[in-house]
Write a structure and sequence with these properties.
Layout: H1 2-22, E1 29-38, E2 49-54, E3 57-63, E4 69-76, E5 78-85, E6 92-99, E7 105-113, E8 132-134, E9 139-142, H2 143-146, H3 154-158, E10 164-166, E11 172-174, E12 181-184, H4 196-200, E13 208-214, E14 229-234, E15 241-251, E16 255-266, E17 269-292, E18 297-323, E19 326-351, E20 356-382, E21 389-413, E22 419-442, E23 446-469, E24 474-502, E25 505-522, E26 527-545, E27 550-561, H5 565-568, E28 573-576, E29 579-581, E30 590-602, E31 606-627, E32 633-657, E33 660-674, E34 683-699, E35 703-712, E36 715-717, E37 720-722, E38 725-736, E39 741-748, E40 756-762, E41 765-773, E42 777-787
Parallel strand pairs: 1-7, 12-14, 29-32
Antiparallel strand pairs: 1-4, 2-3, 2-5, 5-6, 8-9, 9-13, 10-11, 13-14, 15-16, 15-42, 16-17, 17-18, 17-41, 18-19, 19-20, 20-21, 21-22, 22-23, 23-24, 24-25, 25-26, 26-27, 27-30, 28-29, 30-31, 31-32, 32-33, 33-34, 34-35, 35-38, 36-37, 37-40, 38-39, 39-42, 40-41
Length: 814
């Protein structure tokens, strides 16, 4: 309670101090105003960047409102150039704007922007948008320019992000932790459940516009997950008329997909949609070597498998501008997934004299299918002051997966009858989310953001085992291994964030409160338990410009990682005779305190962003793996005392020539895990580093070439470490027929180096896991663009769904 009062007092004091600061007027300053319109349509252009320049330095700037109007006040007297620019238009410069005591207010009237070539007293600057953009709270990666992934999916895109790693099972980690929140267009979309990897594999890479990475989210963002937020923003076309594209792709080892997308816009209505069909065949290998020190025994397992996935994915939406200050959007997606696979494994166990203890062959056939859909409704209202907004979002998400796993075990030693078993799994997830956000500006440089959000989740996991009776040739239900687990969770939240700026100094303070109510039941045994708790999540950010090309920023936030359904289910599940898994219903949520110091430096043709981060986790949730007899291990989850992670990161982007861009990053950090509450002496710490570099070259009239390399050093876990892995990709792209046809060629994992290896070191045993797959592939992609002349565009305006700088839409924002 004392902490709560303290946070509220601090926020209140800063709030009133900033109000006084923001409204302060200085008498020896003037103002410049005007209106920006589209020269072709004569309509106002919203969100145009307007800057007053003195020599090469920015004195002050703003953006136009919904009526194209702008006002720059509190400008010190002097002579300036006014620079007006917006993506898709030629830059316009109004020269010799003079503010003085006898003329402190200047109205420049109407300023026209033209998407076509025209002459005026302007400086023409022709350059491409950077592949990586750095904003106050996030990094934004342009997928087409920075992350070439022809023929890939969302997993392939995430593998190329700085500080991100993806293991052989598709588990995504940010700065060494898998507790990262992944959103789709700012919405959870089922990506916070156990089927995250399966859903990400359904999203084609060519439908992704950019990736937003927020490593230290503030109070307005949902507090769930440890290391931050990754938001996948899908493409959306705002051109007038109709536009579309058809994509055909083929890859080695029988990998194919086709995609058809369209967009129709007229007056106040915009309709868009996309359909994709994908067939993906893959090969996999794996091994496990376990040495038992207590019994002097050794167990070896080798496996190989094949799988075939066929996916349908469709999405669409309608945007309707009710009036100049109101808009309504309805969108959704649906996917259908079908998988068939098989795997063969050999198990061999020996004593220290190499005498066989057991030997058997296991053959597994997998059948899986599922579907999912998401629907969302958004309403936005802008008041007379366009910076004052009220938005509401409602969305429903459903995912359903069915798996049929047939296992046949043929025992060689000791001689025994074969075992045949059918494992039937059904997993369903339903969630509903509603939220309201309000932004109240105070003057030009201060604002208060508030909001409320409610989430309801219903997760059910049903597992049925049937053993084959060779005497009757029938399957018999096995109640001892079958179970049904149901987990319902509700999360309610309120937040408030106040931010203000003066000259080069800005800050943001926020406080968020969340109440979580969870109810779980293992229907098979009748065991019930609750997970109820409330928490406060303060956040703070301070930023200072050190001139026109340098900026330093300090941020802090507290976050939470709630135990997920699969980690809570206490029922023991036999994965095979040597491996058992069970969840832990006694898990507590993790609480994480995160600090980050970053520095931005912009040069004429380059930018660098070094940062230092520190993260302390209370009650760290992690996997444990212990021997329960001579040959069997039990894998579960537990709360470790704590963990620390700290290190440095450097992100750089440079354009040495007009045709050559180079960007990359390197991270170096240490992880310390303290699990002595589980076992005396169970601690581990290690340094690790990762880096990636991408070189993009556009050779006129020839092709575009990109080289991309990634390396991830070893990573510490409580009982061992993950070995290093790396990958090198090459991409080529060429356009024909006035850019209507794009031909792409991608060589993925050229040196076939993406093998994953984990070393487990326990006082009673050691174990080495390896996993590999056919990651080396070649993809050929053909894309045909069609539609009306895209040079005549509608008046640009910031779309809420694809511009998280205005307001995070959902989830990203909340």
């Amino acid at each position: 309670m004392r902490k709560t009062k303290f946070y509220l007092i601090i926020v209140t004091l800063i709030f009133f101090a900033s109000l006084n600061f923001s409204f302060a007027q200085i008498s020896d300053k003037g103002k410049v105003q005007g209106v920006v319109i589209d020269n072709h349509t004569n309509k106002p252009v919203e969100s145009v960047t307007v800057r007053l320049m003195k020599d090469s330095s920015v004195v002050k700037g703003t953006a136009t409102d919904a009526d194209g109007k702008f006002l720059i006040d509190n400008v010190p007297f002097g002579m300036f150039n006014l620079v007006v620019e917006y993506i898709g238009y030629k830059e316009n410069i109004v020269k010799n704007v003079l503010l003085e005591s006898k003329n402190p207010s200047i109205d420049l009237g109407t300023i026209k922007l033209n998407a076509d070539s025209y002459t005026t007293e302007e400086i023409k600057v022709e350059s491409e948008k950077s592949a990586i953009e750095l904003t106050a709270d996030k990094k934004v990666f342009d997928v087409e320019k920075a992350l070439p992934t022809q023929g890939g999916n969302a997993i392939d895109v995430l593998k190329k992000l700085p500080s991100v790693s993806v293991d052989a099972d598709g588990n995504v980690s940010l700065r060494g932790s898998q507790n990262v929140k992944i959103l789709l267009n700012g919405k959870p979309a089922g990506l916070d459940g156990p089927n995250r990897t399966t859903i990400l594999e359904q999203i084609p890479a060519n439908q992704i516009a950019n990736i937003e990475m927020i490593t230290n989210p503030g109070a307005k963002y949902e507090a769930e997950r440890e290391t931050g937020i990754i938001n996948i923003v899908l493409k959306k076309n705002d051109d007038l008329g109709y536009n579309g594209n058809l994509t055909l792709n083929g890859g080695t080892h029988d990998k194919y997909y086709t995609s058809l997308g369209f967009n129709v816009k007229k007056n106040k209505v915009n309709i868009y949609g996309n359909y994709d069909y994908r067939i993906y065949n893959s090969l996999s290998t794996g091994s496990s070597d376990r040495t038992n020190f207590l019994l002097n025994t050794y167990l070896n397992q080798n496996s190989s498998g094949t799988s075939r996935n066929a996916n349908h994915y469709g999405r669409g939406g309608v945007d309707y501008d009710i009036s100049d200050n109101q808009s309504l959007s309805l969108s959704g997606y649906y996917y259908n997934w079908d998988m068939r696979g098989s795997e063969s494994s050999n198990y061999n166990s020996f004593d220290n004299l190499n005498n066989p203890l057991l030997q058997y062959i296991s053959k597994t056939n997998n059948l899986g299918n599922g579907y999912g859909f998401n629907s969302s409704l958004n309403y936005t209202l802008k008041f007379k002051n366009p910076k004052q907004t009220l938005t509401s979002d409602f969305y429903f998400n459903k995912n359903n997966f069915d798996f049929d796993i047939n296992v046949f075990q043929n025992w060689i030693f000791p001689t025994s009858s074969p075992i045949q078993q059918d494992q039937l799994l059904n997993n369903t997830q339903n969630s509903f989310t509603g939220q309201v956000d309000y932004v109240q500006p105070f003057g030009e440089n201060a604002k208060l953001e508030t909001g409320a959000k409610g989430i309801y989740k219903d997760n059910n996991r049903d597992i049925k085992y049937e053993n084959f009776n060779f005497a009757t040739n029938l399957y018999e239900y096995d109640a001892s291994q079958s179970n049904t687990f149901d987990f319902k969770e509700q999360v309610y939240a309120l937040y408030g964030t106040f931010s203000s700026q003066y000259k080069g100094f800005s800050y943001s303070l926020g406080l968020r409160g969340e109440q979580s109510v969870g109810n779980a039941e293992l229907a098979t045994t009748g065991v019930k338990f609750d997970k109820n708790y409330s928490n406060l999540f303060p956040s703070a950010s301070i930023s200072q410009k050190l001139g026109t090309t340098e900026q330093i920023q300090v941020t802090y936030s507290r976050r939470i990682n709630r135990p997920q359904m699969w980690a809570l289910n206490p029922f023991r599940l036999s994965l095979d005779p040597s491996n058992i898994f069970a969840g832990n219903p006694n898990l507590k949520p993790e609480l994480i305190d995160s600090y980050e110091l970053s520095f931005n430096k912009f040069f004429t043709t380059a930018s660098i962003t070094p940062s230092i981060f520190y993260r302390y986790t209370h009650d760290k949730i992690d996997r444990t793996r212990f021997l329960i007899d001579s040959n069997t291990t039990l894998t579960s989850y537990d709360n470790f005392s704590s963990s620390k992670s700290y290190g440095v990161e450097l992100v750089g982007n440079a354009t040495f020539f007009k045709f050559w861009n180079l960007n990359g990053s390197v991270s170096y950090y240490k992880t310390e895990v303290n699990a002595e509450n589980i076992q005396v002496g169970l601690t581990n710490s290690d340094f690790t580093w990762s880096g990636r570099i991408s070189s993009s070259m556009t050779l006129p009239n020839i092709a575009s070439l990109q080289l991309s390399y990634y390396y991830s050093g070893k990573q510490a876990v409580a009982q061992g470490e993950m070995a290093p892995f790396q990958a090198f990709d090459i991409s080529l792209r060429k356009s024909f027929f006035d850019n209507k046809l794009d031909v792409g060629l991608r060589f993925a994992d050229v040196f076939k180096s993406q093998e994953f290896k984990v070393n487990v070191n326990d006082p009673s045993y050691t174990e080495v896991f390896t996993r590999g797959f056919d990651s080396r592939n070649v993809f050929l992609t053909l894309t045909w663009k069609f539609g009306t002349d895209n040079k005549q565009k509608s008046p640009p305006r910031r779309r809420q769904q694809n511009d998280a700088q205005d307001r995070p839409t959902d989830g990203i924002g909340f």
